[in-house]
Amino acid sequence: MKVKSQTGDSVDFDPEKLRRSLLSSGASMSVVDDILQRLTEEVYEGITTRNIYKKAYSLLKKNANFHAARYNLKTAIHLLGPTGFYFEQYIAKIFESEKYEVKMNVTLQGRCVSHEVDVLVKKNDRIAMIECKFHVSQEAASDVKVPMYILSRYNDLNQVNHKVFSQKDEISECWIATNNRFTTDAIDFAACSGIKLLSWDYPKDNSIKVKNYRDCLYPVTCLTTITLAEKEKLLALGVILARDLTTSPERLAQIKISPKRVKNIVKEVTELCKCF
């Protein structure tokens, strides 16, 4: 059976790929088998993968909110747009969780011109600049022009002393982070140029997806028990990670959520952030 992908291509329906994505939510094998059985009965020739995802999400949510929240991860990261400002904060949180010192939105003078750097991180006396590329469209990819452009900025900054973490810092690494993916040419150019990449699925063993499942770095936009408007209010308050709500549940009251709902939301967060 042929289904339509997000790019508009006609592809074979792959139940095993769907099974793997459902299992990544933490749902049991029996629950996944039941959902697959129901989806198989509803899938038809030409259905979009987006509609299949929506059906799977709805069925997971009926089973457990936190399973649906995990399954919703890629869409949740997409909701950190459209400007990309919250995505930058999210990337900063990822590096903070790995014991980096972090500075955001710092303007530095290069040898030729000044540059605003999205994120600067420091660990073991090494400082890296991280440029974040947020795509509004989930189908878009960062092509080779992105690392080529950012390399020129890095080269203008990396041989100059800066006052960031101390009075005399040198930038010795360059990263590019994106919410979607990099093209093959972009990956090859970055590897050749010494630029490190981080995307939804790259590097394979340490991608944004892997870091989430391993370290429970789920953005607050994953949650199924709050509305989109409430998510936006929490982001505006600086609540980027869902797990922050376990230590600061008062943030929920701050945006006028009732005590009963606060209890349900904290329960979802607690279950969501049990890493497996």
In short:
Helix content is 46%, strand content 17%.
Q: Keyphrases for this structure?
A:
alpha/beta; 276 residues; DNA polymerase, domain 1; five-stranded mixed sheet; 46% helix; 3 domains; Trna Endonuclease, Chain: A, domain 1; two-stranded antiparallel sheet
How many individual β-strands? Answer: 9
Beta-strand content estimate: 15-25%
CA radius of gyration is 20 Å
**Oligomeric form of this entry?**
single chain
- State the separation between the terminal residues, measured CA to CA: 34 Å
Indicate how many domains the architecture comprises: 3
Report on the structure:
This protein is α/β, with parallel strands linked by helices. The chain folds into three domains: 2-63, no CATH class; 85-213, Trna Endonuclease, Chain: A, domain 1, CATH 3.40.1350.10; 219-272, DNA polymerase, domain 1 (Orthogonal Bundle), CATH 1.10.150. 46% of the residues lie in helices and 17% in strands. Strand 4 and strand 5 form a beta hairpin.
